[in-house]
Amino acid sequence: MRTDYCGAINKNFLEKTVTLCGWVHRRRDHGGVIFIDLRDRDGIVQIVFDPDNETAFHTAEITRNEFVIKVSGRVRHRPEGTVNPGIFSGDIEVLADQVEILNTSLTPPFQMDDEHLSEAIRLEYRYLDLRRPAMQRNLLLRHKVSMAARVFLDQHGFIDIETPMLTKSTPEGARDYLVPSRVNACHFFALPQSPQLFKQLLMVSGFDRYYQITRCFRDEDLRADRQPEFTQIDIETSFLSEDEIMGLMENMMRQLFADVMAVTLADPFPRISYADAMFYYGSDKPDLRIPLVLTELTDLMQTVTFKVFLDAAQIPGGRVAALCIPMGAELSRKEIDDYTQFVSIYGAKGLAYIKVNDLTTGLEGLQSPILKFLPEQVIQEILKRTGAKSGDLIFFGADKAKIVNDALGALRVKIGHERGFAENSWKPLWVVDFPMFEWDEEENRWQALHHPFTSPKTSHEDLLISDPGKALSRAYDMVLNGVEIGGGSVRIHQQAVQSKVFQALNIPDEEAQEKFGFLLDALQYGAPPHGGIAFGLDRIVAMMTGTDSIRDVIAFPKTQRAQCMLTHAPSAVAEKQLRELHIRLRKNDQPTS
Amino acid sequence: MRTDYCGAINKNFLEKTVTLCGWVHRRRDHGGVIFIDLRDRDGIVQIVFDPDNETAFHTAEITRNEFVIKVSGRVRHRPEGTVNPGIFSGDIEVLADQVEILNTSLTPPFQMDDEHLSEAIRLEYRYLDLRRPAMQRNLLLRHKVSMAARVFLDQHGFIDIETPMLTKSTPEGARDYLVPSRVNACHFFALPQSPQLFKQLLMVSGFDRYYQITRCFRDEDLRADRQPEFTQIDIETSFLSEDEIMGLMENMMRQLFADVMAVTLADPFPRISYADAMFYYGSDKPDLRIPLVLTELTDLMQTVTFKVFLDAAQIPGGRVAALCIPMGAELSRKEIDDYTQFVSIYGAKGLAYIKVNDLTTGLEGLQSPILKFLPEQVIQEILKRTGAKSGDLIFFGADKAKIVNDALGALRVKIGHERGFAENSWKPLWVVDFPMFEWDEEENRWQALHHPFTSPKTSHEDLLISDPGKALSRAYDMVLNGVEIGGGSVRIHQQAVQSKVFQALNIPDEEAQEKFGFLLDALQYGAPPHGGIAFGLDRIVAMMTGTDSIRDVIAFPKTQRAQCMLTHAPSAVAEKQLRELHIRLRKNDQPTS
User: Fold this and answer.
1) How many angstroms away from the CA of A58 is the closest CA of chain B?
2) Residues on chain B touching A176 (C-beta within 8 angstroms)
3) Which residue range is the domain that position A398 belongs to?
4) A45 has which bridge partners?
5) Which residue, A395, A394, A404, is CA-closest to A313?
6) Closest Cα of chain A to B38: distance in Å?
7) Which residue in A270, A491, B329, B429 is deepest, having the highest Cβ count within 10 Å?
8) ipTM of the complex in this document
């Protein structure tokens, strides 16, 4: 139907006759001539309709925004003074010879170049929202990322193997989406939370290198930027150490960024232990664009009389730490109050601070409600350790370590970005040496920090039982600019080790057999050493496009209430369908819409 | 951990030291020396353990089949007389220097090179079944096909866009798999039967060229070779005619076969109308490897007295046709009875025949129970039209056209393969000019032959209402060796035409709006002319690998009872899960396992 994309036309086409198809982006009548900006996925080109060509002119007259038209014409220079250097086709235009309306359009509910749309109307008219150049770019970039990942993985011997979507419910981790079986009455499939067990089985099968870009499902309470279904770049390999896996995976990420973004990432990525990440950044996904780090003060506060600091320093698992903000002395009372409010989200009961107005005048130059509770040598040591300079401000956190880390870690990121300390760059790193387990206060038992198939460090196998809290794993997370974009580990390939982990997690044999029996069986038939990783594709693409919301990089996302505004899914279904599936609705649970 | 794959070692590695990891495929003690065939995904290499190297030898002694080991050693020529030219590494072996057992294995329930396994045991121990070289090859080939398709589509400007898995139930076509929503009480998602509506919306959005290799779900009564979930190469384009789409798609298929199979497919693919396909082959997916065609006799039987033929010739929609089998006169009574039994599956009430023993002796040379009912000039005309030669046999079908076509069409394929008429080759074609609708006897109404979004031929739009049975569509099926591997069409892009089709299908406006409202709305906002196709990946790969069952090209398939023998999905779930999903089990529907 056409010879070229609209967006491809430039000076190289001068004097050529082209046929273009696209949407009427905008129509202007100007000096008896009609101008149409014609848009397709590649861009926009200006079409001119001269009244001398009556047929074409009259057709152009009846077009409206978003009509679909086909135009043939000659490419020519724009007249002097009408050149638009801002766009690719800005110095040419197409003089229309023939035009045909391929389809009409109602007046759309919004302009395609409006950037201030409510998300509700965007999701309801998603097919129009996706016409907007920003959304076209997002999904095109997403395609490029997937394809670049596939090419890299294919070149490195990874085989794309599809694993089932209708699989078994294992109520571990998040809630499953269930699918009632018609053929097997009263039984249910579950949609996969990840292909974890299947990819491990594929290693037992000897496929050696597996990957899949695959949909995963979690029926979680939806937070700001979560989707019921999301996409993982899922990878597993055999006979590689964690160093080799990490090396290969950062090569992949460097190639993706080079291919798609023309960005060069660090080589190698820095690696930091979980313990150091918490110590310096209060977070297991540190944003390295921000140069600020926490200062440890727990040891220093063992003997002070200031009860808030003393208690935190003395309770087991307590921490006192500081965050020094360069030029923070200029913060207003209101700003400090806002930050105090902010850290309270993380459970912090307050946010003590010292303003370092002028170091040259000794303690006189400091300003703080807590100065009077601290001995001078402690204050001097705080100034020394934080490296505070005149004009800085020091914030303090004192509580259980988790609260201090969460609060100061989040404050570090917030202030880092708000006050311009963050570099405008891409800062990837690996976090390694994670603990195997974390203590679940509510359930009063150890939980796997990653998942129960994560291998402990070889020398830590005995700790699994004797001191589970000290056992470190062979897990690794890839973090980029403060976001965990991938997580993986070397897995357990020996059944004896797997049993010890279940024992540490207090999972009885029968329960393990019931849930994961097929994996445990498989481990007994020559399972090779193996490990892998899974990357969150939605999140990576969102970061690359610079959007805050993964909904902007998913063609048809759900709302936070897990609804599709376009198709109105989920919806009521016919009684006959339920009967076939051997289920009925609960009487008192009314449909909400 | 290793330097190379086992299967990669050949003469080029002579005198080199390699480190290999893999599975003990077979161990032999021979003349005081231990030989281990070491297997990985790439192939097998022979390792020799000399008793002089005591440590390695003793480790080798305790290995058993399917142990995972790591071996270092020097590559050397096999001694004279022990060379095995049948395998890639057949003229070399690795003299083991060091060996380490990475994991042990229980005795597997079957040998990895056993080719006579029951499917039950294969599916239960799928992780071992997938170790078998045949299955490794199948899944590797599947990966190559997907990747080749992606590369082709990417190079031709197609964008991989993911569409939702949790979508809306539209009880049309097959039964949906439903997913109860927890957040939206008493409402259900459906798993997609295909991304049809979403890909059309993406065309409305201007993406121009879309593809996705995606999972689809149909809760159908399972026939021999169906799976509840299957994979489609799903494609849609804008601004292309059906000729252009077909041309592009056969280019893709030619490239897949060239890249993956080193097979050159016809260029261009032959095209045949639906009417001709039925006329000549009794099938809309003719197997062109078989040169036999049906012979039309309906006109000839208008005046015979033989009631079976006369009735079929005279009823509306009746057909009398013949299938001439070269050298078929040698068929035994028993063989003819078996074929008669075979066609009865398709509703044929009998299978009349004439044996053409000797044409030189006139009617004397023919042998048939029906000869006496047919006038001589009719018999002569039958011989002339079928082109029967001495030694041939002519089968007859006389009934409603559907029964005649189904019966003789199937018989043609069966005899073609059984009696050696089928070429050993790849014979693709397009079937085009399908009817828009077929009459549903049970429901007493027209049904869409493809789906209700298929565009009628432009000149047939008026027929939609005046004579729906005569309206032809712009649909096209790609057929390969008697199997429909892809089906598609130019879609309706104008709402007025879509309404007419719904009218012909007797779908009221409200129902159409309820089910497809979002598509109908979208068509009003500048939908471009568009069309596409979907290929069945499982089927294509099964054909390429030469297996009869798509289960052999799916890593973790379901049984015909839609169960996974490995994970035991579907399974019973906790009452708490059902409560959260606002459903309960029907009291009288008992679990079946």
Assistant:
1) 19
2) 577
3) 290-422
4) A38
5) A404
6) 12
7) A491
8) 0.95
